[in-house]
Design goal:
Blueprint lengths: L3 E3 L4 H9 L4 E3 L14 H17 L7 E10 L2 E3 L5 H11 L3 E12 L2 E13 L4 H11 L13 H6 E5 L2 H5 L3 H11 L2
C-alpha cells in the first residue's frame, strides 16, 4: 500500500494505523468542528471528518487522505470532550451503568473520489462510583477524549460491561473497515 495522509493528531489513530502496518504521514489543519443543526450523530461525525479531509487534501498531492471524527452519544445527545475536571466527572457519571453509542465518521479522499461512512459501536458501562471516576479523571486526564474516556485505559478495563461492534472504533478508528476501503479507493 502506498503512503497515505492521516489528517489527525490522535495518538490512538496513529497507533492503530501502525498496528495495521499502513504507511502514513500526518498532516493536520485546524478545522471548525461546528455542524449544521438537525443532522444525526452519524452525519455529524462524517461532516466533521469530511471538513478535516478537505482541509488537508490540498497539500496531499496524489496521496490518499484519511480523516476521522469520533463522538459519544447518550440518549441521542452528543457528549463532546470535557473542558475541565468537573465536566469529565459529570460525563462519566452520566455514562455509569448506561449504554451509549460511539460513532466514528470516516472520510477517505483521493482526488475527486471519496468514501465516507460512520461506524457505530454500542458500549455499556457497569455502575462506576464517583470515587472511581475521580480516580480515573485525576490519573488519566481524559480531556482530549470524546465522552471523557479511553476504552484502552483503566476505566475501560474495569468499567465496561459489554461492547457490540468494533472495539477499535471506540479507540477512534474502525481499522478493519478502513483497510478494506483504502484498498477499494486505490484500486
Amino acid at each position: 500500500m502506498n503512503t497515505i495522509i492521516l489528517a489527525s493528531q490522535s495518538p490512538r489513530r496513529k497507533q492503530l494505523l501502525e498496528w495495521a502496518e499502513i504507511p502514513f504521514e500526518i498532516i493536520v489543519k485546524e478545522t471548525d468542528e461546528h455542524f449544521p443543526p438537525g443532522i444525526s450523530p452519524e452525519e455529524v461525525a462524517v461532516y466533521i471528518a469530511r471538513n478535516k479531509a478537505l482541509a488537508v487534501q490540498e497539500n496531499a498531492g496524489e496521496k490518499t487522505v484519511l480523516a476521522a471524527d469520533t463522538i459519544v452519544v447518550l440518549d441521542d445527545h452528543i457528549i463532546g470532550k470535557p473542558v475541565h475536571r468537573e465536566d469529565a466527572v459529570s460525563m462519566l457519571l452520566a455514562l455509569s451503568g448506561e449504554k451509549h453509542r460511539v460513532v466514528t465518521g470516516v472520510v477517505i479522499r483521493k482526488g475527486e473520489k471519496e468514501i465516507a461512512f460512520a461506524d457505530v459501536t454500542e458500549v455499556e458501562f457497569h455502575p462506576i462510583s464517583e470515587q472511581e471516576i475521580e480516580f480515573y479523571v485525576d490519573k488519566y486526564k481524559p480531556y482530549d477524549k470524546a465522552g471523557a474516556y479511553a476504552i484502552q485505559e483503566w476505566i475501560g478495563v474495569v468499567g465496561i460491561k459489554s461492547i457490540h461492534g468494533d472495539f477499535y472504533n471506540v479507540m477512534g478508528l474502525p481499522v478493519s473497515r478502513v483497510v478494506r476501503e483504502l484498498h477499494r479507493i486505490n484500486s
